[in-house]
């Protein structure tokens, strides 16, 4: 376990709404740390539609998911928030009124006055391939993400899938693996054409094997794979001797650990008070796609509105003795100073 990190506010989720929370909280001198399961910021915008255009962000006629994420990162820069990526917030414990201790699966512990749940549709979780008996191998020799490439050096690998992740990891791991087989059930790919061309070139140079087929079973003991049984599209079968398998079948969103934090839930969403977006627990707020209230729309612009009102209430908890005066960024020299523009 690492040292406890103290902060005013801990934001769970670095999607567009969690990112904008840094801005509105920052204007009120409230410091934030953000935790996200993904290895990048931007939530659904970055993970599900980075290249797709969004047309309904006020004042911005057209911006891609990736572009919006970049713009938000630039906008919140003056506030120096700290990001903890690749980590899932697992538990939340009450220590004051309000006051919380929050822990992640990476062993980080935060102590904060308020928690802002900006967890969107919940945690992105890998889709499990339909292979009987895969569970005992998971996280031992079957991995749904590559956290450290070095772990695969010198190994015999089977990568399964035909999307960007499968192709990208095939290209990245081919030079360090002892042997690599890419297995895909169709000859069409859902990946960047350039990656597909590079993969095909590696296969024709004999540097990797590419097989059209599906894994039908696994062999091994105590979680350690020794071989995968494969059925080719022509019906023939064979074994691939391997040390690890990496299936990339896409991601689904599940509520995940948020369900265990003692908050009142309504069908996997967190009901909030629309005056301040506080949940059933004093000092815990829910903003963006994760919350529900009469008339709720799962739109980024609605999340941004929620952030502004939430921040006003969070200020009361972080600075109970300070009076908050409403100010505009256009005319307040003190806000402009915080933004570094004055
Ligand atoms: C294909 C598509 C197109 C869309 N187009 C539009 C559009 O045109 N206009 C529009 O307004 N909206 C659009 N949306 C919806 C929009 O993307 C969402 O409203 C927005 O992403 C919600 O932002 P958020 O920050 O609340 O949640 P998310 O973007 O879902 O981010 C939540 C983050 O929380 C993280 N997280 C969850 N649980 C934990 C945990 N326990 N610990 C750590 N991290 C956690 C997740 O990993 C995720 O990164 C679209 C959505 C999709 C899928």
Q: What does this entry look like structurally?
A:
This protein is of the alpha/beta class. Helices cover 22% and strands 30% of the residues. The protein has helices at 16-27, 43-47, 65-76, 164-173, 193-204, 300-318, 333-338, and strands at residues 4-12, 32-36, 53-54, 63-64, 82-85, 89-96, 99-104, 109-117, 123-126, 156-160, 179-184, 209-221, 224-232, 237-241, 244-247, 251-254, 270-271, 284-286, 291-292. The strands form 5 sheets. Strands 1, 2, 5, 6, 7, 8 and 18 form a 7-stranded mixed β-sheet that branches. A 6-stranded mixed β-sheet has the order 14-13-12-11-10-15. The longest helix has 19 residues, at 300-318. The relative contact order is 0.16. The model has no long low-confidence stretch (mean pLDDT 95). The structure holds flavin-adenine dinucleotide (FAD).
